[in-house]
Design brief:
Structural class: alpha+beta
Order of helices and strands: HHHEHEEEHEEEEEEEEEHEEHEHEEHEEE
Helix content: 25-40%
Number of strands: 21
Low-confidence stretches: 13-57, 98-106
Strand content: 25-35%
Oligomer: single chain
Distance between the termini: 107 Å
Number of helices: 9
Shape: elongated
Largest sheet: 6 strands, antiparallel, barrel
Length: 412
């Protein structure tokens, strides 16, 4: 090959390379326009496969499988979560006493009443033109009028079907005319530590309705002491689910859901301050869905929950001076137990022969160390009409009796 032929071949190679490079540049210039079309319009007819994918997952492009699950779960559940607004002449509700007026729209006046409580609720049932909502009892405690705000902004007045102070649950009823969906219950016994959880509700009031926050299940079957009568001592221990999902005043009564959009439980309370100098974050507690289902069924049927009772007013020995207990009652208070302060007239305890200053230590051979433990055993292990065996001390001597459980008087 002579020098002229080599020069011709080199020129042809350079020409071809220039044409290829130019073609690549033209193709590359098309991609920003294509991406702009896809992201701004959701996909045109020529990109139907992308449009179908978006519709199927209801998620943005390039979302992870976890994000897709959370997006879909929130979409499934959001229309079943409502805002609950309580109206009264004065701020006498437990909600107001707990949180003050920081979460209350004091300017909102209706029918001569002011909004004094804001919370959330979950629509769980539709039947014969009515929809049923579960919320926390403390959200509606003491209010004169209850208004429900649906996810579409509709305002509907609600009536109370029933409420239960001990589990802090209440059932409300509204017209189902504008209700789009109801929440499906998950099996809370299958909830495991570490799984994702989403909270949906109205933190700080209806203005922030349908707020979604994400976290995990931190623990199951936590025993939380509950002071029902506000006397500074625990009345019983409630079994709850712990989560680090953000919940705030106004989330009370709202939903904690799983990645399938099912109800894990009803948001109840959080720990924000341990002491005046120690704060806490990410410690919230939720009433398990299985408990919610059990209680709502009874509230729908009876308006209240029937619970067994001994007919006694009791005090935990741990709250008394141990030396006085030893000297006056001839009992070593370090063994713990509960002391009878009063025997109710015509009660099962009176008929069985229990007296003031008797010290109960066991029920059905289960040791009892506090009033809260005894009440928890009664509520969860027995029912009205059951016969139980009590071990107790009187004047230093151990005795036992059997009695038939009566019904706890309503405290609502």
């Amino acid at each position: 090959m002579d020098l002229q032929e080599k020069n011709n071949e080199q020129n042809n190679l350079e020409k071809n390379e220039t044409e290829i490079t130019s073609s690549k540049k033209k193709n590359l210039l098309k991609w920003p326009l294509l991406l702009l079309v896809v992201f701004s319009l959701g996909g045109l007819t020529s990109y139907k496969f992308m449009e179908n994918k978006i519709k199927k997952t209801a998620s943005p492009l390039f979302a992870s499988s976890e994000e897709v699950a959370n997006i879909n779960a929130a979409a499934i559940a959001k229309d079943s979560v409502v805002s609950v607004v309580g109206y009264s002449d004065v701020s006498t509700t437990l909600q107001a006493r707990l949180f003050g007026n920081s979460n209350v729209d004091s300017s909102k006046i209706k029918d001569g009443m002011r909004a004094v409580a804001n919370g959330s609720g979950v629509i769980y049932k539709k039947n014969l033109g009515s929809a049923y909502i579960v919320t926390n009892n403390h959200v509606i405690d003491g209010v004169k009028k209850i208004e429900i705000i649906l996810s579409d902004g509709s305002n509907i007045e609600a009536e109370i079907v029933g409420k239960d102070l001990w589990t802090d649950l209440a059932v409300l009823k509204i017209s189902s005319a504008n209700v789009k969906s109801v929440m499906e219950f998950a099996d809370s016994d299958k909830v495991v530590v570490g799984q994702d959880s989403l909270a949906i509700g109205s933190p700080l009031g209806a203005t922030l309705s349908n707020t979604v926050t994400k976290g995990i299940i931190s623990a199951t079957e936590r025993q939380v002491p509950m002071d029902i009568d506000s006397d500074g001592t625990s009345d019983w221990y409630q079994t709850v689910i712990q989560t680090d999902t953000a919940i705030n005043p106004g989330n009370s009564g709202g939903a904690l859901i799983n990645s399938s959009g099912q109800l894990i439980g009803i948001n109840q309370l959080k720990i924000s301050n341990v002491t005046s100098s120690v704060s806490a974050e990410g410690i919230g507690f939720v009433i398990p869905s299985n408990e919610v289902k059990l209680i709502t069924e009874q509230l729908e049927k009876n308006g209240s929950v029937k619970r067994p009772a001994l007919g006694l007013q009791l005090i935990s020995l741990s709250t008394l001076n141990s030396q006085t207990v030893k000297e006056e009652l001839n009992y070593d208070a370090s063994k713990q137990g509960v002391i009878v302060r009063n025997v109710e007239k015509d009660s099962a305890a009176e008929r069985a022969g229990l007296k003031e200053m008797d010290i109960i230590t066991k029920i059905n051979n289960t040791e009892i160390k506090s009033v809260a433990e005894l009440r928890k055993y009664l509520f969860e292990k027995t029912k009205v009409g059951d016969t139980v065996n009590l071990s107790y001390y009187r004047n230093g001597n151990e005795n036992s009796i059997q009695l038939v459980l009566g019904e706890l008087k309503s405290t609502n």
